[in-house]
Amino acid sequence: MTHSNENATAMFKAENENRPEVLAHYPVIHHQPIQWGEMDAFNHLNNVVYYRYSESARIGYLQALGMFDGSMVTVLAQSSCQYLRPVTYPDTLLLGVRCKRLGNTSMAMEYSYYSTAQEIIVATAEAVVVRLDSNGKGKLPWTTEKRQRLLALEAKFGHTPEC
């Protein structure tokens, strides 16, 4: 294991301890402090920022699975976000991320945004990513090993994606 992989593993472990019960079945928890400059004219977290946060959470999930080995790329095919409560500065969001459905070449992911200030889920989101070959030209099926790794990670947290 390289030094950077050791750091990523340690950070993943630290970020996933002490999670709220509502995020218990999400294998990856991304910690996201709110920045003052991310507020909109109504002093709420700007809607675009939620998508940036989900991207960071998605990258953390793929890193936890060891998916950045150069053998493939993923592209975002679809995303949506449902805003349940306004978020304001200061706050820290905990984004739970997991696989909702594992397809042949794609994965539907789901996110829950938990506000530590409000102690409640403030938004939910979904995204579909498609796995492509390393050139980014053709769809690439999930290997048996990568499917098993993903399903094992999900199972550790009592979640089973649709297949």
Describe this structure in words.
- By secondary structure, this protein is of the alpha+beta class.
- Helices cover 27% and strands 33% of the residues.
- The chain contains three helices and five strands; from the N terminus they run H-E-H-E-E-E-E-H.
- The protein has a five-stranded antiparallel beta sheet.
- Strand 4 and strand 5 (120-133) form a beta hairpin.
- The longest helix is centred in the middle third of the chain and has 18 residues, at 47-64.
- The two termini are 30 Å apart.
Describe this protein with a few key phrases.
163 residues, alpha+beta, 3 helices, globular
What's the pLDDT, averaged over the residues?
90
Termini, distance in Å? 30 Å
Q: Number of DSSP strands?
A: 5
Element order: H for helix, E for strand: HEHEEEEH
Structural class: alpha+beta
Strand order of the largest sheet: 1-3-4-5-2
Oligomer: single chain
Q: In percent, how helical is the residue content? A: 25-40%
Shape: globular
Radius of gyration (CA) equals 16 Å
Give the percentage of residues in beta strands: 25-35%
The largest sheet is: 5 strands, antiparallel
Low-confidence stretches: 1-5, 8-12
Q: What is the overall number of helices? A: 3
